[in-house]
Amino acid sequence: KNQVEQSPQSLIILEGKNCTLQCNYTVSPFSNLRWYKQDTGRGPVSLTIMTFSENTKSNGRYTATLDADTKQSSLHITASQLSDSASYICVAVVSSGSARQLTFGSGTQLTVLP
Amino acid sequence: DAGVIQSPRHEVTEMGQEVTLRCKPISGHDYLFWYRQTMMRGLELLIYFNNNVPIDDSGMPEDRFSAKMPNASFSTLKIQPSEPRDSAVYFCASSDLGTTRFDNEQFFGPGTRLTVL
């Protein structure tokens, strides 16, 4: 069964601090892994998309890593800002011919305090 | 571009009524996705279209749900009859073909918050 597990479920940090969110996936055959940021009351916004051949990808203060062997990904946020408070969702994409199946994690709720 | 447009933003209806949610994808995008998000189940992909053709509707929960894409700039998600357990936020997203089919970034709309009483 395809699964994506994220940890921690919630996280509170002080502004300016760094943090790392974890994502473990069990999907096959793997196509790509995505991280989304979702602000309260808004639609998700894509942060990174990585295929199995990519180990790391950055988007500003966000850096995602991918270990296809251990099926783990992490999202590192540097020098956090109040605007980083949001839910971060990990999504693993399974490929089967031309079809794709998305398996979503339940998200990590990040709160950045002043 | 205005991004993905969804209407209405909020919908409150009574059990048994028909509900129609609307989506206008980003111009030029040939993939359109419908998602549902609840606290209990998180984000779920309901159905997606490529060039107006439904490709995978395995996520559609029941026959009460149906989706259409009559042209490249408009899609609807219909629930008939609606039930309280259908209460959720429904998102529409679109993406373009790019160089890796389907694997490009998806742009989400603001969502429609549906409440079925």
The major sheet of chain B is characterized as: 7 strands, mixed
pLDDT averaged over residues of chain B: 91
Largest interface (C-beta under 8 Å): A-B, 21 and 21 residues
Oligomerization: heterodimer
Determine the structural class of chain A based on helices, strands and strand pairing: mainly beta
Number of helices of chain A: 0
What is the gyration radius of chain B calculated from CA atoms?
A: 14 Å
The major pleated sheet of chain A works out as: 6 strands, mixed
**Overall mean pLDDT of chain A:** 92
Give the strand tally of chain B. 11
Helicity of chain A, in percent? under 10%
**So what's the overall shape of chain B?**
globular
The fraction of residues assigned to DSSP E strands of chain A is over 45%
Number of strands of chain A: 11
Shape, principal axes of CA atoms of chain A: globular
Give the class of chain B from helix and strand content and strand pairing: mainly beta
Strand percentage of chain B: over 45%
Contiguous low-pLDDT stretches of chain B (5 residues minimum) are none
Distance between the termini of chain A: 41 Å
H/E topology pattern of chain A: EEEEEEEEEEE
SSE arrangement:
The complex is a heterodimer of chains A (114) and B (117).
Chain A: E1 3-7, E2 10-14, E3 19-26, E4 30-38, E5 45-51, E6 56-59, E7 62-67, E8 72-77, E9 86-96, E10 99-104, E11 108-113
Parallel strand pairs in A: 2-11
Antiparallel strand pairs in A: 1-3, 3-8, 4-5, 4-9, 6-7, 7-8, 9-10, 9-11
Chain B: E1 5-7, E2 10-13, E3 19-24, E4 31-38, E5 42-50, E6 53-56, E7 65-71, E8 74-79, E9 88-95, E10 107-108, E11 112-116
